[in-house]
Structure prediction request, 831 residues.
Amino acid sequence: MRELDPRREISPDERMAVAAAREIHDGDVAFIGTGLPMVAAYLAKATHAPGVRLVFESGIVDPEPRELAMGVGDYKLAHGSTKIAGTAYALSLLQGGRVDIGFLGTAEIDAFGNLNSTVIGAYRKPRVRLPGSGGANDIASMAKRFVTICRMDRRRFVEKLQYLTTPGFLTGPGAREAAGLPGAGPVRVITDLAILGFDPETNRLRVEELYPGISLDAVRAQCGFDLGEAGSIGEAPVPTPGQLHLLRDVIDPEGIYIGPKRA
Amino acid sequence: MAQPSKIRSLADAVALIKDGDVVAIGGHTARRHPMALMREIIRQGRKDLHVVGWNNGIDMDMLVGAGCVSTVETSYVGIGSFGLARNFRRACETDGLRVIEHSETTAMDRFRAASIGLPLFPSKTGLGTDLPSTNPHLKPFTDPFTGETWMAVEAIRPDVAIVHAHTADEQGNVQLDPERWHDNSPDVMIARSARTVIVSVEQIVSEETVMSRPIDTILPRTDVTCIVEAPYGAHPCCCDARYDYDLEHLGRYHEATASQSGFAEWLADYVTGPADHWAYLEKIGARRLMEVSMKRTTR
Amino acid sequence: MATNDYSLAELLTVCVSRELEDGGQGFIGLGTGGRAFTMAVGVPSVAAELARRHRGIDFTTQYGVTFEPDLKKTPANFADPYLLAWPSKAQVRVEECLEYFRRGKMTVGFTSGAQIDRRGNLNTVCIGSHDKPKVRLVGPIAQSDHCTYAKYTFVMMVQDPRVFVPKLDFRSALGHGDAAGDRRRLGVPGGGPRKVFTDLAIWGFDADGDMRVETLHPGATREDVVRTVGFDVVFADDLGATPAPTPEELRLIREEIDPEGLFLEARIA
Prediction:
């Protein structure tokens, strides 16, 4: 193993990648998009979850790419895969309830973990028109559980979404079932400040783990809704030298998705 | 054999598209969109189109920016890692562009249903969200067998589908190379849902070539109205293993679309300026085309 | 005209060929052997090719998943390895091949059955009661798809009183139902049976969907038809003779399209 550069600080992206990797259990069928989830999935597979089955949105199953793909449609991703099946196949795994975990990003999130990637501002006259659902609603509706990864700030963590693109717990306990949605819904929200989960009684977001040097008040200050009473708060995982080596030297040596530039 | 040739010029094929048509677009994100056909749509000044896809980017953004579109129907419009689609943003934020919101499977299922002759397709996607309030083609219903709530996704019958593929013979049998994503099933559904089907291809090949590997035919000629030969017809999108994304060009596009005037210049440079697809390829240049081609695979 | 200078298969081929329309698409099943093969596969195959060559029409043949195979390179054995290597324009997925029916692209389905009634309804499920059949047959396969969705069907069968029956033991495919307008009332999109081609005659249907003999093959009599049919036979007012093949049609069949008799003499293993 090459000596890690001691001057290089651990970046928020690296912390989030390690936290996201932890959400993947060995043997899971994991539905993966581009960016941090791709890095996290490779990390999980290289460490605690060698049996994870990675399904990319473009229908690639279990690739062994030699270079990090620039997107899920990048042909580099196909190298060594056990199946090149197409997006319709990948989505059919979701529709058939066969995906254990999916990862999502978002422009807005509310206290019940509902997400907005459609508009900022009024729908008919938006301030910012965003790309739309993509496969996000499918993942949140149909995967057995899902994890949201995003930076934390008050414009993102909002009391009320301006458009509900993707269902978390909707209006709280029982609402997913009432709407007819399968799947347990959101289980974790991984941010640059803290790792959040959901209170099983109220289905509302709460802080579960803090990164070193970040106070609970600092997290509250970046959240636009009440995070409730914190119970026992743990310490978020600090990337180990082994994990950092994998991230920096093996998985993303060019720093495409995680790197000092992006810190 | 009395099988007619289905080959048409780019201009003649696009002339089949009328103002106000519902036009379904093949490919997804920045992959295998029929860009040569779409540039010709802009050259011919088509208006008031209702464009439909399942995951889109520069294709729809360019048509929207050029003023060809009144309604966008898809799950996603973005320029990949470069960020938001700026023409699309402007049109939504200032011009009130109508958007019919989907998630990926519901967008596909509209085509899927039509392509297999069904009036609707059942789904769980969209339940409990704002999608149905901004999409008249999603309606909850009760499963008559289990009493469960499902979402009905209404079939769509586009006036025209435009798709880009690798090869076709004169009669219109469309093939993809064996080295491909196998990601062709939505394109097949999109084509089979439409009344008129225009396919641009990298190359016209002989009937014998097609018949030597019939398993690579994605659309038999009975599914196809006409074929247009357009090498690098997906540029700057990628075309499976034939050529990669032209990230430099996509980046330049994204920068240009920061302002309406920047996009107008870009349009003049790359779309309305070049008289046809060949002039466009000359503008891009052999060197650049070879550079993206050389990145075929990492194998 | 009773001269026997052409075969029954050639006669039927020419008759079917003349019915095929420009721009049409026809679905031909694969699988049976012997005489049933000639009727169900051989005749439609050669007829489509004859229509292209002789009348210059554009007609798409679909053999299950295989589109427009090269008849000149027909394998002498229809086992899978040979079928797969048969040069053709497309081999689609099996569910796709039937979707051409469901979305209304199929002009004509070539079909058959173990029983047919005077309304063109078909049975391929059982002889005797369904719960305790005397003979259990193969089942409907895609026959119900043909009869539901195709613009029309051509039924190919050999006349026999046990086959042309007053009442089916089981209706596995809808013809013209029980009464005029039944298909429309049921919301069934296709047109149902248009012609029945047999070893003795060509049958059509009147406006109410009742079957009637339209032409008798050379050498066949009204009595032959009545004797081989289990229900009351109606003859068209303008009953005629099935028109004979022309020399040019016979030449094309024998010298160019099917010189080895693979299709019309069922020489395919």
Remarks:
- Chain B has one domain: 10-102+157-294.
- Residues 10-102+157-294 of chain B form a domain with the Glutaconate Coenzyme A-transferase fold (CATH 3.40.1080.10).
- Chain B touches chain C at residues 1-4, 114-118, 169, 171, 173, 188, 192, 207-208, 210-212, 214-215, 217, 219-223 (CB under 8 Å).
